[in-house]
Amino acid sequence: MAQLGQFGLAMAFILAAYAIVASLVGIRARNDKLIASGRNAAICVCIAISTAIFSLGYLFLTNDFSVAYIAAHSSIDLPLHFKISSIWGGQEGSLLFWSWILTVYSALVIAQNRNKHRAMMPYVTSVLMGTSLFFTAMHLFVVNPFKLGAIQMPNGAVSLFHPNDGAGLNPLLQDTLMVIHPPMLYTGMVGFAVPYAFAIAALISRQLGDTWIRTTRRWTMIAWGVLAIGILLGGNWAYHELGWGGYWAWDPVENASLMPWLIGTAFLHSVMVQEKKGMLKIWNVVLIVAAYTMSIFGTMLTRSGLVDSVHAFAKSDIGGYFMAFIVVTLSGALYLILDRLPYLKPESQMGSVVSRESSFLFNNLVLLVSCFAVLWGTMFPVLSEWYNGNKITVGAPFFNRVNVPIAIFLLFLTGVGPLLAWRKASTNSLKRNFLMPAVIALASGVPLYFLGVRHFYAWLSLVMSVFVGITIVREFYKGAKARAYGTGERFHEAVVNLTLRNTRRYGGYIIHFGFVLLFIGWSGQAFSEKIRFPESGIGKTFNVHQYDMRVEDMGVRQGPNYAAQYASVSLYEYGKKIAIMSPEWRKYGGRDQQGTTEVAILSTLRNDVYLVFQGSTDGVSGDFTVYYNPLVMWVWIGGTILGIGTLIALLPNRQTPSKRLQPATVKESEELGQAV
Amino acid sequence: MKSKQLKFLIGSIVILIALAWFGYQGFNESMSYFQTVPELYASGDQAYDRNSIKVQGEVVKGSIRRDGAATVFAIGPKDFKVPQNFSPGPATQTLQIRYVGTDAIPDTFRDYASAIVTGRLRRDGTFEGTFIQAQCASKYERESAAGVKETAANQ
């Protein structure tokens, strides 16, 4: 099987190289057969890489520890779903997984557009395959997942090594979320390769209208949404697995996934300006190049150990190759942009400062500043060391100081931007759209203040959430009311039909609403509390806000591949018993004997009680830490709504029956008739 | 048209300056020197003046002990062999750490773990730590080669 995987990699390498050459030569020579052959080769690369990754999966399932990667990341007693997730649990496999996603995307997008955009597609194929070629070369020559285990004998000779059992998967990664979080991050980050490939193809073929943007809009949305969910799932994993009471720490690895997302967000917004007004053409190309570069850079950051991180992975020498690849692709893209500047002239002029396009512009400005600040903070240890030999790190306060105001400003734009007119918004329309929400929001600020929200940013963020929430709800309300009046539909039907008829607009509103909820959740962080209760034995009670806790029991139990110390703690709210919390402290088998906490969390819409048990040394008393985290649940709810909004925005618009009566819409018009 | 562009420019510059100012404040608030134990000793008297240092090293085997609310331990070079009558100091390139932080000590913190402690160096040569990070996954992977070797030696 290892040989089959190796063969798949080799085939992928050859086919990707062929696809590039065939496509480029084909379009030069105007040879459609050659172009088609390049296209087919690109699709076959997907089959070849799929063969490789399925081989790797097979090796995991059959416990073939002669392969070094399997021996290092799996063990016989590892449950099935973790064996599958071990495929991307380490360096070699995760890069292969990256490749696999890329080739699947490539095959789909190439097949989807096989008869369209004839001048662009061969270049799209080449660009996508260029990236594939780089990654395949990495698999083959630098970090090969199929390498057999080998050890160096005392006499210096190297011999093959086939252990009886593997080292097992890091216990922290033995978590269901870790089965889905990394694939989602990768699916998101890799996804920017598609719009990037179209942008480069548009530059090369000088077709710089909005074709490349319209063609890739859904791909960009998928990448963006999946990345957002992936990042949030990572936060959720950290929250319930790592036991430090939070979900975001500005760790380099987290930042690595955030940066492409920030630029992707800027891109998603600024392309609308190009579609509607023919402006910002250079800017959009620059943004997608930056998003793609950040994706590659982020992959490198998480995988090379360039920057110290709490959860950095293997230190390895892949950094140099990645850096070289980034330099080559980036300078190629910059050259193309500079060379094609005459084709990137705007078709209209900028409107007033209070206009839709300017809100997009400010959105882009601060998103880029945010990304730059994150990049700066993440890379500062490396930069300062280059500069004067002192490695200087910056912590969360730096990131928060810059990004919290940016985030609140973005939230403000979220409420205002979609309702501003293009060109120039009239004072009257401003009043009509914003006076009522602004008054209500400010009015809600007063009780918030007296309820104890005295932290300025948290207060501002909550007030702004009210403001934006109202503007969004009102958009749905007004639209649905008008529609119900016009069509005779009932109100809730009108809401649904309204959304399905303009999925992009209303899906966007739903995503924005998800962000409102996210902001509510984030604001709660300002009021988190942490209290330690060291050396507490059975019968010990502790109190946090309206909660009382009592340690009822402590003991030891044996899990499938770990031994756990557990505690059983009764939780009382206002004196009434509401739950029994069972935090654990586990030691997994395997060579590492690593201890991990299993946190017990009671989540309500109002707050979380987060109980950490850190084990007992004497069996009589143990260390407990209680976190009181207000509003955390809203982060997960907001994330879910964001995901739903993204899905809706991906749907094609449903056609209006009066315009086109097609079988698909007949049923709907019948319903409409009944309603009338 | 010109005045509109000027307005944009001014608006953008105001935003950028404000954010740069926030960044500068946050930077001063949270910057810390990241050093290994030998680097810390090499920076001499300067080390005492630095408000926040992150020092990295491997937890010396058997050095972790409780002292009231504090946790005391030593960090040093990789695979440090503890000599008889061991006392941490520049001679062995090891550093005595007194952790007084309020955060719970991470799961991954134990003998031989690669730890990063944030704090400051006191005149008596102990390092007062307020925050501990211990590397998990990277340690895990780097160790795999060594781990395999150990198993091989046992056979």
Short description:
The complex is a heterodimer of chains A (676) and B (155). Chain A has 20 helices and 13 strands. With 676 residues, chain A is of the alpha+beta class.
Write structural notes for this entry:
The complex is a heterodimer of chains A (676) and B (155). Chain A has helices spanning 2-28, 32-61, 68-73, 80-85, 91-112, 121-142, 176-191, 193-204, 211-242, 252-277, 281-304, 318-339, 356-388, 396-416, 427-450, 456-487, 491-501, 503-524, 633-650, 663-675; strands at residues 150-152, 158-160, 392-393, 529-537, 541-544, 547-558, 562-573, 576-581, 584-588, 595-598, 600-603, 607-616, 621-630. Chain A is α+β, with helices and mostly antiparallel strands and 676 residues long. In chain A, strands 5, 6, 7, 8, 9 and 10 form a six-stranded antiparallel beta sheet that branches. In chain A, strand 11 and strand 12 (607-616) form a beta hairpin. In chain B, a hairpin with a 5-residue loop joins strand 6 (114-121) and strand 7 (127-134). With 155 residues, chain B is α+β, with helices and mostly antiparallel strands. The chains are: A alpha+beta (676), B alpha+beta (155). Strand 3 of chain A pairs antiparallel with strand 1 of chain B, so a sheet runs across the interface.
Which helices and strands appear, and what pairs or packs with what?
The complex is a heterodimer of chains A (676) and B (155).
Chain A: H1 2-28, H2 32-61, H3 68-73, H4 80-85, H5 91-112, H6 121-142, E1 150-152, E2 158-160, H7 176-191, H8 193-204, H9 211-242, H10 252-277, H11 281-304, H12 318-339, H13 356-388, E3 392-393, H14 396-416, H15 427-450, H16 456-487, H17 491-501, H18 503-524, E4 529-537, E5 541-544, E6 547-558, E7 562-573, E8 576-581, E9 584-588, E10 595-598, E11 600-603, E12 607-616, E13 621-630, H19 633-650, H20 663-675
Antiparallel strand pairs in A: 1-2, 4-13, 5-6, 6-7, 7-8, 7-9, 9-10, 11-12, 12-13
Helix pairs in contact in A: 1-2, 1-6, 2-5, 2-6, 5-6, 5-7, 6-8, 7-9, 8-9, 8-11, 9-10, 9-19, 10-11, 10-13, 11-12, 13-14, 14-16, 14-18, 15-16, 16-17, 16-18, 17-18, 18-19
Chain B: H1 2-30, E1 32-36, H2 37-42, H3 46-49, E2 53-59, E3 65-67, E4 70-76, E5 95-99, E6 114-121, E7 127-134, H4 137-154
Parallel strand pairs in B: 1-2, 5-7
Antiparallel strand pairs in B: 2-4, 2-6, 3-4, 4-5, 6-7
